[in-house]
Amino acid sequence: MMSEQNSWIIAWCNSISFLSEIPGWAHALLALISTYCLVIVPSGALMVYLDRKISADLQARVGPNRAGPAGILQPLADLLKLLQKEATKESSWRQNVWLSVHTMALYSTLAVMPLGSMALLVDTEMSAFIPFWSALVLALGTMLLGLSQDSVPGWFGGIRVAAQTLAGSFPALIALLCVGVRAGNFRWSILANCQDFSPWSWTFLSNPFQFIAFIVFVMSGLVLLAIPPLDGGVSMSDIHGGVSSHLFGRRLSLFRFGRFFGFFFWSIIAVVLFLGAWKLPLQVSEGLRAQEAFRFLATIELIWLLAKTFFLMLFITWVARVNPRSRVDQITDFAWKVLSPFSLAALVGASICAGWKAFL
Amino acid sequence: MDKNALVSRLNKIIPGGVLETRRFGRSENTSIWIEAQAVQKIAMALKMDTEMKLDWLENLSVVEFEKVFIVTYFLRSLITRHSLVIRASAVPVSPGSEFLFPSVRNIWPMGLPMEEEAEEMFGIVFSLNNETQFQVKVNRLPENWKGFPLRKDYVFPSQFEDITHSRSFNKSNQKKSSL
Amino acid sequence: MTIISSEPVRADLTLWEIGPYHSSLPAPMRLKLRLDGEIIAQCEVETGYLHRGLEKACELHPWRAAIAYMDHLDPEVAIFGELVLCLAVEEIGEIIVPPRAQRIRIILAELSRISAHLVFMVRMAKAVGSETIVHYLLRDRERILDLFELVAGARFSLNFLRFGGVSADITDGFIERVLDVCDLIRIRIKEYNDIFTFNYGFLKRSSFVGKIDPILVKSSGMTGPNARASGISFDVRKDMPYIGYDQFDFEIPLGRGEGGIVGDAHDRFLLRLREITQSMELLKQVSDHVPIGEFQNEKIDKEYIVPPGEAYARIESSRGLLGCHVVSDGSPCPSRIQLRTPSVANLLAIPQFVSGIRIEDLPVVLASLDLGIAEADR
Amino acid sequence: MRISVFSNIASYIRSVFRGAWSIAESCTTAFPYILRWGELRKEITEGYPDPVSSKTADDLPPRSRGLLFNDIDRCTGCKECEKICPAQCIRVEEEPGANNSKIWVSVYDVDFSRCIFCGLCVEVCQPASLVHTRQYEGAAYHLTDLIASFGRGQITAEQRASWAALRQMSESDEVTL
User: Which residue of D has its CA nearest to C205?
Assistant: First the structure.
């Protein structure tokens, strides 16, 4: 399964002499670890910094400016601060269960994350559905965390997160079907290959129904994972943070990282499905592939993909900073009564379009 | 607005309730001094009065003046825009002790917080049915605070070490339910 | 003050105690909620956590120091506390305040009202989780605080009014700066409206939420913007004019129920927004009529002793009717200063109208009441 | 409170678009702040303390009330400030000085941890020795650091005796004159 697709790590390994002889499972493990350490964590740090700096600009303030030049080391300072905090109370077994579920959800998604044509570890017919499983497990972990606390805010937070996740997953799945109808498959490579570098060839502009599907997919992802601006489940002020109200230090940083990771992978998937994936202009990727410059190809594909992802994330952050937070019942109402009908309409329309093209 | 007519009307309903009529301070307002035991009846009469319709207890002020406690009710009508000041005085049985005073919280519900504050600060127990029950609710002061701070003969404690700073919600609630 | 609604307690309800310090509370207070699911079935309010013994402290200090204490009655809007004490003392001593001082007082009071309403909008924005508008509002309130600093030397605790006038004359160009600030805020209000007031999310959060009935307003004695949003037209500035409010032409806005129904949280928000506009209108009128002359009654010097007597003064603070009953026995210190503060009535009304709303709306409802616990507890 | 969107398709579509439009309007209103477009959007919070903000002590308004300073040479030790202070943060101790016109202010402490900067003490100060400076940075690590002492210090018993003698001498001089 991963013989061909993990070629990018083999390409890197071969340049280092003592790594060239290691077996295939070690290659896969190395690929996961390096993805985590070199892509996810730096993206998290960069995104935290950009989020803080741009919302500071938006809100007519200075933003972080003490740690390093222009506050560039602020994410590191945040992390160090959180890590050195003392535990306020003993962790219960319930919290440990949550911790294991949360960690599982975090790392299981890594393998299916599409990070470029060279970096597809798992590329099956059903690849595009696997992140849903991870998102649901992440939400389940969050709910368990809320219920594990012996306090009313925790219970309410857990129940609200569960309600939001249920409400958000239906339109998200339907919106995913719309893309599948266009591409004819749910394999990452095929989903990406039906688009090109030019924005006019991207899925979300191919017809109006795909555009609706894109909007619905992004927003239902926000509902599903409780990401601002639709984060009523975890951040309402009446339960002051809800599930995270009793977390501290390392656990809080893990929880926050889990939330960032959900946001991040959902944005990557949205970019891959709707916003032209990692497609480079002017046959660059074919040319590099012909010259067997796999390392260079993997790098620029990743950078182009991440650039689009960050743009999408910052756009959502901008909307979240300006607009008020909705109540949870309003969010679930929105998901069931607005996103779901629109996603169904988009599916019908996208199917008709696909059928029309087949007849032509 | 004819204050004399009002006083005569009040005298008709509650004979001997009104003691005298005076200017309030240097203002235009009239203040009516009434008998302390007749406060509830006069309050009801003023609220029901067809001409005045004093439906709003704007303020309840307690002043200690030469060891006499003067309770002043600033009344106002939202319908007729009339205003009136009625006052009654009371003297504690022994200095430093609580004493009873008729409450008007069933006539003007907005008087409840003001009466509770006066209870705590002056040791005047506002009661609805004149029952002897010297239980002052503690809300502002610490639970084991001694004395009534706004009285003139109040002496500040020399040391604050034994005074608790925490209050349990349930405890104050129990006191409430006992009343 | 402990307020308990009269309905019997059901055993199957979730008990949740909030406070005294909680992110959804505007100030230290304690709520004991009985929840039916996420709906509040019963609510108890307990306050008293900010009691500082202000009335006693005033009795222990000279008359002039009492003004400094009245600054801290409600630290956000210090001028109203000073003003009500000065009015009461001036009534006792029959002090004539020069017209210039009257106008300066009106200017400061209306500026305070604007700044208090801006802070109210900040609280509202925080309650619904809108972060950006908070910074814009606080930035513009800073302009008003700059004006206070220019005229009084402090930003919050002004200690500027004196019996019989004000402590210092306004500086040159102050009135022009006031008008500049008014123009600036008038431009900004359009921005606030675009970002926040007419935002659909905010409308959904605040309209139809926490409706206060006019009957409840009357029975609890609520005054100020909260009462006016429910349709009770009562404003001390109109009904019992003081410091020359009757010489100016301004309107008292009433709740119209544009977002939802009359008397809901959004109505209270809109009403305060309109009051800001009215205050700026008033400031514009006052600034044309600041006469030249003395700013302090010359008879009132540092050795002034308030004669024996008593008086009761009322003003319209940003939260409602603020009353002050002052008794003097001719000694250097006040004999009694009793305060009637508007937030007490608002607190009294809370348990009677929050039952039936969702707990997610509780922060919005509490913020829309503009509770000043500092002045309620004193 | 609930969005009753299914009651009418048209109103449903209208409310969805109204919501989307208002949110888009909110976002576009705030967007120029990112790029600092226009005069009204240039103003941002000032950095403090590093870099020291554009407002220095000299930029403060003329009446601003900073930390107190007492010029002890002009102070007469009349204790008016101590009497009026609402926070009771001023402590004055004085003794008769070397001659009758001069009073030795041995202790003049201002406890800035209690001071509320109301300015009443400066107002009552007859010789105008007590003034508000423009200094506003008063943070300290210990409470005791916040007590500013302006007094001349306690005098010894010998000094007290010698000054009493001096006073008597000047008194007798006056009598003789």
Answer: D1
What residue of C is the nearest CA neighbor of A323? C130
Beta bridge partners of B69: B64, B90
Residues A131-153: pLDDT tens digits?
A: 787 788 877 778 877 777 777 78
Question: Would an 8 Å CB–CB cutoff place D27 in contact with chain A?
Answer: yes
Q: Quick check: C340 and B116 CB within 8 A?
A: no
Query: Residues for chain C: how many in total?
Result: 378
Mean pLDDT of chain C: 86
Q: Specify the pLDDT at position C210.
A: 84
Which chains have at least 3 CB atom pairs separated by less than 8 Å from chain B?
A: C
How do residues A163-177 score in pLDDT, each as one tens digit? 888 898 899 999 999
Q: Is A298 exposed, middle or buried (0-12, 13-18, 19+ CB in 10 A)?
A: buried
Q: Which residues of D touch C188 (CB under 8 A)?
A: 40
Cβ–Cβ of C132/A232 closer than 8 Å?
no
- Of residues C16 and A360, more confidence is placed in C16
Q: Where are the alpha helices (H) located in A91-229, listed in sequence order?
A: 93-108, 130-148, 152-183, 188-193, 208-225
Cβ contact, residue pair C129, A61, below 8 Å = no
- Break chain D into its structural domains and give their ranges: 5-41, 63-176
| Residue D51: cis peptide before it, omega within 30 degrees of 0 | yes
| ipTM confidence | 0.85
- How many Å apart are CA A305 and CA B170, to the nearest integer? 58
Average pLDDT value for residue range D94-121? 81
Chain A interface mutation, best of C21, C132, C195, C366, highest count of A Cβ atoms under 10 Å: C132
Q: Do chains D and B touch (3 or more CB pairs under 8 A)?
A: no
Q: Percent of chain C, pLDDT > 70?
A: 97
Decide if B25 and C312 are in contact by the 8 Å CB cutoff: yes
Whether C68 sits inside 8 A of D60 (CB atoms) is no
Residue C171: count of CB within 10 angstroms of its CB: 13
Q: How many helices (H) and strands (E) does chain B have?
A: 4, 7
Could you give the CA distance from residue C351 to residue C41 in angstroms, rounded to a whole number?
A: 10
Q: Which of C56, C91, C218 sits opposite B25 (nearest CB)?
A: C91
For chain C, domains (ranges, CATH) are 54-341 (1.10.645.10)
Residue of chain A minimizing CA distance to C360: A238
Displacement of CA C375 from its chain's centroid (Å) = 9
Choose between C179 and D9: higher pLDDT. Answer: C179
Class (C level, CATH) for D63-176? alpha beta
Asked whether residue D53 carries a pLDDT value surpassing 80, the answer given is no
Q: Kindly report, residue by residue over B82-107, the tens digit of the pLDDT.
A: 888 888 888 877 777 778 888 888 88
- pLDDT score at B168: 59
- Domain assignments of chain A as residue spans, ordered by start: 91-359
Highest mean pLDDT: which range of A199-208, C10-19, C114-123: C114-123
- What SS3 class is residue B167? coil
Structure tokens at C67: 């003004």
Q: Any idea which architecture B3-151 has in CATH?
A: 2-Layer Sandwich (3.30)
Determine the residue among A58, A319, A323 to mutate to test chain C binding: the one whose Cβ has the most chain C Cβ atoms within 10 Å: A323
Write out pLDDT tens, residues C211-232.
Answer: 888 888 888 888 889 998 888 8
A289-334 pLDDT, tens digit each = 777 777 788 888 888 899 999 999 999 998 988 888 888 888 998 9
> Which among C65, C72, C153 has CB closest to D64?
C153
B85 C-beta neighbours (distance < 10 Å), count: 24
Instruction: Give the count of beta carbons closer than 10 Å to the beta carbon of residue B134.
Output: 11
* Chains contacting C (3+ CB pairs below 8 angstroms): A, B, D
CB pairs A-D closer than 8 Å = 46
- Stretch 169-198 of chain C: residues touching chain D, C-beta under 8 Å: 171, 184, 187-188, 191, 194-196, 198
